[in-house]
Design brief:
The structure holds 2 protein chains of 2 kinds.
Chain A: H1 7-31, H2 46-54, E1 61-63, H3 69-74, H4 79-86, H5 120-133, E2 140-145, H6 152-163, E3 168-174, E4 208-212, H7 216-231, E5 237-242, H8 277-283, H9 285-295, H10 300-323, H11 340-345
Parallel strand pairs in A: 1-2, 2-3, 3-5, 4-5
Chain B: E1 2-3, E2 12-15, H1 16-30, E3 34-38, H2 53-57, E4 62-64, H3 69-80, E5 85-90, H4 100-107, H5 110-113, E6 123-128, H6 143-147, E7 153-155, H7 160-172, E8 177-182, E9 189-192, E10 206-209, E11 214-218, H8 221-235, E12 240-244, E13 247-249, H9 253-263, E14 266-273, H10 278-290, E15 299-303, H11 312-318, H12 322-334
Parallel strand pairs in B: 1-10, 3-4, 3-5, 5-6, 6-8, 7-8, 11-12, 11-14, 14-15
Antiparallel strand pairs in B: 2-9, 7-13, 10-12
Chain lengths: 353, 346
C-alpha cells in the first residue's frame, strides 16, 4: 500500500526511488570501466529507505553501512557529489577520502558511515545517548543488514539502548530472503542459529515489528510508530524489513544481470522478459510502488516523465564525476587531526619535523 | 620541550589517583558536555579515580556501563559525534583490545574518512603496566598498538602534575586521546598545581634531569626508574640527561634529537616488550636525525618478549629496573670515549 501522505509527497517518494534505481544502475555500468572499489547497491530496497527516512527531521541522524547509497539519496544528498566520491574525486562528499563504503554528509544527518559489520550499532546508540543527555527531541536511526546481528556489538548495543530507553531505531534491512543458506556461487549473509532475526531482539524487551520491505505503506507505519516512541521518551524500536535480494546483488560484485529497469513493466506485464519475471513481476519494490500509484490514478505518462528525468540527472551526475579532478596529493595528509598544525607535521618524523 | 619547572611552594602534594580525580572534576565543572562512562565509575572504579564524582555531578554525568568495552567506546564515539565530550574508563588496557574496532576503525578515522565533516572529542582513560602480580590479562603495556594508529593521540604521564595536566588537555582535545595510566604510580605523591595554568600540552616532553654524557628517554613509570638510574650513574661520575616524553604520539622528536645531539648517546627505556615497540621508533628517529654524532648504538631497555608473569618473583624480573637502564647507559659509554661532538667541549 502507499503511505497515507498527500499525493504530492507520494510522487516525491516515487521520484526519489527512481533516482536511487537509476543511480545504482549508472554506477554498475560505470564500474565496468572505472575502478570504484568493492561496492554494494540498494536495488530492490527503495521502498524501505525512502519512506522510512522521509520521516526524519532536521537534527535527526542516520548511521548506515556499506549499502548506503539509497539512504543518502533519500535524505537529499547530491548524487553527483556521491558519484564523485565513489570515483575518488575532489568534489566528492568526503573530499575523496571515504569512497563508496563511507559516504557521509553531516548536514544531511549522516555524520559517518561504517563498513565494519555491526560498527554503526554502538555509534547510533551513542548519538541517541547524546540526544537524551542534552534533552534534544531527536532520534538516531541505525540502518544495517541481517548480517550485523551476528556481531557481538548487536547484543551490547541493544542492551544499553534498552537499559537507558534511548531514542534509537534499529532498522534492520533483511535483504536475504533468497540468499539464505549457502547456495552455489552466491554470497551468503544469513548464518544465524536463530530462526528469526527478532529472536535476538525479544530478550532485551525492545518492541519490534517485521514488515514487508517492498511495502512503502507498511514501512511508513512501522517507522512512524518507532519515531513517536523515540521522541516520546519511550525508548528503542527494532524494525526488520524483508526484501528478496535483487539477482544482481547475489554475486560478490553487483552486476546488471536483469538489465536496466523498464518502468513500463509495471503496467505491461507482457513486456517483462521471462528470465526475470519473478523479479520484475512481483519482487521489485520500485515497480510495486509504481503499480500502486498507477492503481491510485497516477497517469503512466507521469511515471515515465519522472523516470526520464531521473535517468537524465544521473547521466549528468556521471559526467560531473568523471570531469571532476582528483584531489591534490596533499589532501591525503589533511583531516587526520582537528589541529591543522598536527596534520602538516604528522608523519614518520612526528611533530616539529 | 619544556624544562621541568620547580613546583611552586604552594602546590598541593597529591597522589596521582587524586590528581586524576581533580582533573576530571575540573573539566566536569567547566564543561557540561563532559560525561564519564565506565564500569562501576559511580563507586570510583577499581582504584578510586572517580570516587565521589557522582555526588557532585549526578548519575546523568557519571554513568555506569555494562561490561561491554567495544560498545561503550562506540557509544562514546556516537555521543562525541553529537556534542558530548565523553571520558571512557577502561579498567585495564588489556581489555582495550575488545574495543579495537571502535577505537581504530571508527574513533581514529571518522574525521579523516568524512573529509573533515566530523570530529570525535573522546578521552579514553586506561591503566596498565605490571605491578601487584595481576597476571597477563591485567598487566600489559600495549601503547605501541595505539601509537601506530593515525588519528589517535597517546599520552603517558609519570608524575601527579602531568597526570592532572595531560588529562585536562586530553578532555579538551578535538580528537580521541588515550591516557595511559600506570597503576603503580597511583599512590605516589607529588606537587600538583591545579587550574587552567597547570594544563600540560600534548606532544611536549620534559627534561627531568640535565646531563652531558648520555640521554635516557622514557615515559610513564619507567621515567621514574630512569631517574633512579641517573642517580646510580651519577655515583660513578656519569651525568645522564633524563627525558620524560609524557606524550608518546605525537612524539616530541625535537626534544629527543636536541638532547642526543649533545650527549651523543641514548638509551630508550619502557616497560613494554622491546620488539616492534616505541623504543624502536625512537631509535630509528635518532638514527635518521642524529646518526652523524652518535658515539654508540642506541640501547633499548624493556620487558622480555613474553606475556607478563603473575608470580611476584617473576614480575620483578620482568619489569626493567634502574640497574638495567644504568647498565645500558654504561654500554653506550664503553662503546666510545666520552668526547663531545666536533667543535664542542665535552
Amino acid at each position: 500500500m502507499l503511505p497515507p501522505i498527500p499525493r504530492a509527497a507520494q510522487l516525491a517518494q516515487l521520484r526519489t526511488m527512481l533516482r536511487i534505481r537509476r543511480f545504482e544502475e549508472a554506477l554498475i555500468e560505470l564500474a565496468q570501466t572505472h575502478d570504484v572499489g568493492h561496492f554494494h547497491v540498494y536495488v530492490g530496497q527503495e521502498a524501505t529507505g525512502v519512506p522510512a527516512l522521509a520521516l526524519l527531521e532536521d537534527g535527526d541522524v542516520a548511521y548506515t553501512t556499506h549499502r548506503n547509497h539509497g539512504h543518502l539519496i533519500a535524505r537529499g544528498v547530491d548524487p553527483a557529489a556521491m558519484l564523485a566520491e565513489i570515483l575518488g574525486r575532489a568534489t566528492g562528499t568526503n573530499k575523496g577520502k571515504g569512497g563508496t563504503l563511507h559516504l557521509a554528509s553531516a548536514r544531511h544527518g549522516f555524520p559517518t558511515t561504517s563498513s565494519s559489520v555491526g560498527g554503526p550499532l554502538p555509534i547510533a546508540v551513542g548519538s541517541a545517548f547524546a540526544f537524551a543527555q542534552t534533552g534534544r527531541d531527536r532520534v538516531s536511526v541505525c540502518l544495517f543488514g541481517d548480517g550485523a546481528l551476528e556481531e557481538g556489538a548487536w547484543h551490547e548495543a541493544a542492551n544499553i539502548a534498552a537499559l537507558r530507553r534511548l531514542p534509537v531505531i534499529f532498522l534492520c534491512e533483511n535483504n536475504s530472503l533468497e540468499a539464505l543458506g549457502q547456495k552455489a556461487n552466491e554470497y551468503p549473509s544469513s548464518t544465524l542459529a536463530s530462526p528469526r532475526l527478532t529472536d535476538l531482539v525479544a530478550p532485551f524487551g525492545i518492541p519490534f515489528a517485521i514488515v514487508d520491505g517492498t511495502d512503502a505503506g507498511a514501512v511508513h507505519a512501522a517507522m512512524t510508530e518507532a519515531i513517536t516512541r523515540a521522541r516520546g521518551g519511550d525508548g528503542a524500536t527494532f524494525i526488520e524489513t524483508q526484501t528478496v535480494r535483487w539477482p544482481g546483488s547475489r554475486p560478490l560484485w553487483p552486476q546488471l544481470v536483469t538489465g536496466r529497469t523498464d518502468v513500463r513493466f509495471a503496467w505491461d506485464d507482457a513486456a517483462i522478459p521471462d528470465a526475470h519475471r519473478a523479479w520484475f513481476g512481483g519482487q521489485d519494490a520500485l515497480l510495486r510502488y509504481v503499480r500502486e500509484l498507477v492503481a491510485a490514478g497516477v497517469p503512466n505518462d507521469e511515471v515515465v516523465a519522472a523516470d526520464e528525468a531521473a535517468v537524465r540527472e544521473m547521466e549528468a551526475a556521471v559526467a560531473f564525476a568523471l570531469e571532476s579532478p582528483y584531489p591534490a596529493p596533499e589532501e591525503a595528509f589533511d583531516d587526520v587531526f582537528g589541529d591543522p598544525r598536527l596534520n602538516a607535521a604528522v608523519g614518520p618524523q612526528g611533530i616539529g619535523a | 620541550m619544556t624544562a621541568a619547572s620547580a613546583a611552586a611552594p604552594a602546590a598541593e602534594q597529591l597522589r596521582t589517583i587524586d590528581a586524576i580525580r581533580s582533573a576530571l572534576r575540573d573539566e566536569l565543572a567547566a564543561d557540561p558536555s563532559v560525561v564519564v562512562l565506565g564500569e562501576d565509575v559511580t563507586v570510583g572504579g577499581p582504584f578510586g579515580a572517580t570516587a565521589g564524582l557522582v555526588d557532585e555531578f549526578g548519575e546523568a554525568r557519571i554513568r555506569n556501563t555494562p561490561i561491554s568495552e567495544g560498545t561503550v567506546v562506540g557509544l562514546a564515539v556516537g555521543a562525541a559525534a553529537r556534542g558530548l565530550r565523553p571520558i571512557v574508563e577502561i579498567m585495564f588496557i588489556d581489555f582495550a583490545t575488545l574495543a579495537m574496532d571502535q577505537l581504530v576503525n571508527h574513533a581514529a578515522k571518522l574525521r579523516y574518512m568524512s573529509g573533515g565533516q566530523l570530529g570525535i572529542p573522546l578521552t579514553i582513560r586506561v591503566q596498565g603496566g605490571a605491578s601487584g602480580a595481576f597476571g597477563a590479562h591485567h598487566s600489559q603495556s600495549l601503547e605501541a598498538w595505539f601509537a601506530h594508529v593515525p588519528g589517535l593521540r597517546v599520552v603517558a604521564p609519570s608524575t601527579p602534575a602531568d597526570a592532572y595536566g595531560l588529562l585536562r588537555s586530553a578532555i579538551r582535545d578535538p580528537d580521541p586521546v588515550l591516557v595511559l595510566e600506570h597503576r603503580a604510580l597511583y599512590w605516589g605523591r607529588g606537587p600538583v598545581d591545579t587550574g587552567d595554568a597547570a594544563i600540560v600540552p600534548i606532544g611536549r616532553a620534559a627534561v627531568r634531569r640535565t646531563g652531558r654524557d648520555v640521554t635516557l628517554i622514557s615515559y610513564s613509570r619507567m621515567a621514574q626508574t630512569a631517574l633512579a638510574a641517573a642517580e646510580l650513574l651519577a655515583a660513578d661520575g656519569i651525568e645522564a640527561e633524563v627525558i620524560d616524553l609524557r606524550t608518546i604520539s605525537p612524539l616530541d622528536t625535537d626534544a629527543i634529537v636536541e638532547s642526543v645531539r649533545r650527549t651523543r648517546r641514548a638509551v630508550v627505556a619502557h616497560e613494554a616488550v622491546v620488539p616492534f615497540g616505541v623504543g624502536a621508533e625512537i631509535a630509528a628517529t635518532i638514527g635518521e636525525r642524529a646518526f652523524d654524532v652518535l658515539a654508540a648504538p642506541v640501547e633499548r631497555v624493556g620487558a622480555p618478549f613474553t606475556p607478563p608473569p603473575a608470580s611476584p618473583a617473576l614480575e620483578a624480573a620482568y619489569v626493567p629496573d634502574a640497574a638495567a637502564i644504568a647498565a645500558a647507559a654504561r654500554r653506550t659509554l664503553e662503546a666510545s670515549p666520552r668526547t663531545g661532538p666536533a667543535g664542542e667541549a665535552s
